[in-house]
């Protein structure tokens, strides 16, 4: 059976709930391997926003890699993975990726995705966007990254925060070519 290998990177921005829900949903797919990298500041945000332990959060993934460990399999372009997501993506991480600054494992796997022309999805979490933020997003878009700010839709008549989160995660899965029914789709 074909195994889709996805790397989920979490940087220090609000919105960790999107990454958590994505990891929970991916657990339901036998043919998907989730690989997790968490920045130091994101570790603090996980505790603050989700009121959960790092161990509990890491256990949602199939593999966990330390953000400072360049000797992991995913740190090499010869390691075959299908996609990288930065969910959520801080402006610091966005800038590092856009400018090829691979100072940590998150930057390195994003650099690999760009150079190997693999799918890279960036979910920036900031508002409003400054001109610098927009220029970095434009640069990454020109390099082939998909820029997906987690902007909810309301045509699907969400009733809860979970519905809004599921819409965002469902759209991520759509862009990874992973079938899902997490949200009510637009009907003609």
TrEMBL record:
FMN binds at residues 12-14, 39, 90-93, 125. GO terms for molecular function: carboxy-lyase activity; flavin prenyltransferase activity. Residues 4-176 form the Flavoprotein domain. Its EC number is 2.5.1.129. InterPro entries: Flavin_trans-like (IPR036551), Flavoprotein (IPR003382), UbiX-like (IPR004507). It catalyses: dimethylallyl phosphate + FMNH2 = prenylated FMNH2 + phosphate. Keywords: Flavoprotein, FMN, Prenyltransferase, Transferase. Pfam families: Flavoprotein. Dimethylallyl phosphate binds at residues 155, 171. PANTHER family: FLAVIN PRENYLTRANSFERASE, FLAVIN PRENYLTRANSFERASE PAD1, MITOCHONDRIAL. Belongs to the UbiX/PAD1 family. Flavin prenyltransferase that catalyzes the synthesis of the prenylated FMN cofactor (prenyl-FMN) for 4-hydroxy-3-polyprenylbenzoic acid decarboxylase UbiD. The prenyltransferase is metal-independent and links a dimethylallyl moiety from dimethylallyl monophosphate (DMAP) to the flavin N5 and C6 atoms of FMN. This is Flavin prenyltransferase UbiX.
